[in-house]
Known about the structure:
Elements: E1 2-9, E2 29-32, E3 35-38, E4 59-66, H1 71-78, H2 83-95, H3 99-111, E5 182-188, H4 191-194, H5 198-203, E6 207-211, H6 218-231, E7 234-242, H7 249-261, E8 267-272
Parallel strand pairs: 5-6, 5-7, 7-8
Antiparallel strand pairs: 1-4, 2-3
Amino acid sequence: MAKRKIIKIDEKKCTGCGLCIPNCPEGALKIIDKKVRLVSDLFCDGLGACIGHCPEGAISIEEREAQVYDEDKAMENIVPQGPNVIRAHLEHLKDHHEDAYLKQALAFLKKKKIIIPFSLDDESPRVHSHGPSGCPGSKVMDFKKRDPGVKASCVPRVDSQLANWPVQLKLVPPLATYFDNADILIAADCVPFAYANFHPDFVKGKTVLIGCPKLDDAAFYKEKLAQIFKNNSIRSVTCVHMEVPCCFGLVEMVKEAIASSGRKIPFTEETIGIQGGRL
């Protein structure tokens, strides 16, 4: 057993709708006793493709002792589901730059003499018999060709609205003076780069914290936030995240931290599109 990132299902929130299951081609999720269950650590790669498809926010990623993910065993579940699901899985690995697992999956197919009727370099629309595939959070996209609109020289300079430092959640002291009677903004790392009006629309008047729910330690974040909420007079919390599935984990971290603090704190969620729109 090794400590690694793996999904966690909140049974109290899970309604058993099963919307997450088609987005886990590895076969790690099944409905048992009207609840979605993680049937085996061996099948869960911990990349969180299922998270954004849960309407109840019942799935998150945690770091714990778990059996090492086994690509061959996952492929044994995937192959019987047909070429579309095989492609979804391979593209999932490619989008997350899991080159070792991708190489292992292709070797498995070769060993079983399974011919896949597509190329991973093909940029045609992706198909999945059960729903969307791949991870838009890691997929390479180029927006340079879009209309820039107003020229940069015509845009007035905007002053920074940042009122606290540090802002990285790992670095902030839980009893910092700027938490006293504060309206807190918790933003995913990518948001300020995607949303042009981040400072006037979100930062102004707020105490800012940033973090990445996919790459950082979720358990540490929840504990740190719970300390901040419990030991300070917090007026409100706003969570701003990207539209990609893995980013929704930030919302659950914040909600769980508020619940753990025992405080009743008004909570607002905002979602930003990959190309900068407010959704």
